Amino acid sequence: MSTLVILAHPDLEHSRVNKRWRQALLEHPAEITVHELYEEYHNWEIDVAKEQGLLEAHDLIIFQFPLYWYSYPPLLKKWLDDVFTHGWAYGSNGTRLRGKKLGIAVSIGDKKENYLPAGSVSFTVDEVITPFKASAIHVGAIALPYFAVFGASFQASDEEIEQSAAEYVAYIRRHRLPTPSPAQ
Ligand SMILES: Cc1cc2nc3c(=O)[nH]c(=O)nc-3n(C[C@H](O)[C@H](O)[C@H](O)COP(=O)(O)O)c2cc1C
Predict the structure, then answer these.
(1) CA 167 – ligand 1 centroid, Å
(2) What is the pTM of this model?
(3) Separation of CA 17 and ligand 1 centre (Å)
(4) Is the CB of 71 under 6 A from ligand 1?
(5) pLDDT at 1
(6) d(Cα 48, Cα 179) in Å, to the nearest integer?
(7) Closest to 150 measured CA to CA, from 64, 66, 26, 36
(8) How far is CA 62 from the centre of its chain?
(9) CB atoms within 10 A of CB 106
(10) Tens digits of per-residue pLDDT, 18-55?
């Protein structure tokens, strides 16, 4: 089964990181399906049935986006609000995401050392992505460790971005493997 990557970048044309990551993913069409929200929904009217169908057809789903104000770009937030509905994603009959693996691939403008309690951001990335992890728990899914590149605004060199693209594909492959069952 292929992996679904939900890509949300409002200005991919001027992107360094997400554009390169997208290119790396597109080299593996049999393994990875890239779904570009800003390309698909110029009018921001999400086709909920279509999106839910896509999610149901995949067990490993990665949300790829640039970090904007310590959060998702707004179309991804709207997508979550529209698609993760009561009776489908949560509530007594809302079981469709249960057991699926959800990951995040995020480009982060600031430097890694600033994402520490003593750094200028004051929070770790794991703390920043708490809403994502809480949402995964709420729908009975498994929140994977995040994949990130730091210094995405200025510091990251072309070589680092190039390397991160290969690491991103490896991250997806690693998590496509079945989760090992607990030791007996
Ligand atoms: C509106 C906006 C908000 C941003 N907010 C943050 C932020 O909260 N933290 C951070 O480290 N970088 C922030 N950045 C920098 C982006 O994360 C960075 O430009 C992006 O990850 C680069 O990826 P790209 O080359 O794919 O566009 C922000 C950038 C924009 C345009």
Answers:
(1) 20
(2) 0.96
(3) 11
(4) no
(5) 75
(6) 29
(7) 66
(8) 4
(9) 23
(10) 999 999 999 999 999 999 999 999 999 999 999 999 99
